[in-house]
Inverse folding.
């Protein structure tokens, strides 16, 4: 008899990229690799291990190649790397990346600030990247400022759709991740954008949400996307990700918060929550890191209480 498996969601751990990039004190490469190994050991299978960008732009991620080389040796992990252009994409593939994340923004000012080109130039760059890398390399498209832009404010659904009209035909099989870069999206907006996108582009193989918890709406937005059929969610262990120079800014929705919510809802994440919380506690304590999320403290308190009552009975 086969036991029916629970419906599942896929968590993409982006702490080693989005979570670290705003941390100023350099996190030693060995420590980065050890966090990845620990995340894999608690059941995380998909990890964005870094970003191939210039050292000057993101000094924290200057060792992405070394981290990637180490990850290639870890069985059962699918390392993905964020790249802004064709050249960096080819470098990442040569170093062992099997999933590339190409990032561009819907809003022009954010794209210029992030990758120093117009969104149109980024669309052309994406086309060049697709031609340059072997077809067996999985491709994800991160559409930044799909909901809101730090410079231009709320982004209209029509603007995001217009951008996708140009991008999707270039490779309909690519996974598309809509990113709430500022954390200002709300569940209604998330619902509306995903429902419009999913019906407009039925050939897209997989949709994902990249949520930030800056305004405490991370989980609500994740659930809104889930209700529209999205099953892939970015998250950062310990909720890492705030920029130390932007007071009040917080990171991605915490991996442990998402795991707890979906497991309570009866969905399988493949991740051992208590073991993850132990890793997340250490991640949250990284010097210079700004942690977020709620579940870490609650689970830690519960585990400590159980340990106390077990030792008092012994
Ligand atoms: Zn982000």
């Amino acid at each position: 008899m086969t036991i029916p498996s629970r419906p599942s969601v896929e968590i993409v751990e982006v702490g080693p990229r989005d979570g670290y990039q705003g941390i100023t004190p350099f996190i030693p490469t060995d420590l980065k690799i050890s966090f990845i190994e620990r995340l894999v050991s608690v059941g995380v299978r998909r990890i964005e291990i870094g970003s191939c960008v210039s050292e000057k732009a993101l000094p924290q991620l200057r060792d992405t190649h070394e981290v990637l080389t180490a990850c290639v040796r870890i069985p059962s992990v699918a390392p993905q790397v964020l790249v802004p252009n064709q050249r960096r994409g080819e470098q990442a593939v040569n170093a062992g990346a099997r999933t590339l994340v190409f990032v561009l923004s819907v809003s022009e000012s954010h794209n210029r600030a992030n990758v120093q080109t117009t969104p149109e130039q980024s669309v052309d760059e994406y086309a060049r990247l697709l031609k340059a890398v072997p077809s067996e390399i999985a491709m994800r498209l991160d559409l930044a400022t799909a909901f809101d832009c730090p410079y231009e404010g709320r982004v209209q659904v029509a603007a995001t759709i217009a951008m996708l009209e140009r991008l999707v035909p270039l490779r309909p099989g690519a996974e598309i991740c809509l990113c709430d870069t500022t954390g200002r999206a709300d569940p209604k907006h998330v619902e509306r954008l995903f429902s419009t996108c999913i019906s407009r582009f039925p050939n897209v193989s997989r949709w994902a949400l990249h949520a930030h918890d800056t305004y405490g709406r991370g989980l609500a937005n994740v659930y809104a996307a889930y209700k529209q059929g999205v099953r892939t969610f970015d998250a950062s262990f310990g909720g890492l990700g705030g920029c130390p120079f932007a007071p009040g800014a917080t990171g991605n929705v915490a991996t442990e918060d998402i795991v707890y919510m979906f497991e309570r809802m009866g969905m399988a994440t493949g991740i051992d929550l208590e073991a993850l919380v132990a890793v997340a506690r250490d991640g949250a304590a990284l010097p210079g890191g700004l942690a977020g999320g709620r579940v870490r403290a609650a689970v830690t308190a519960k585990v400590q209480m159980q340990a106390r009552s077990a030792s008092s009975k012994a």
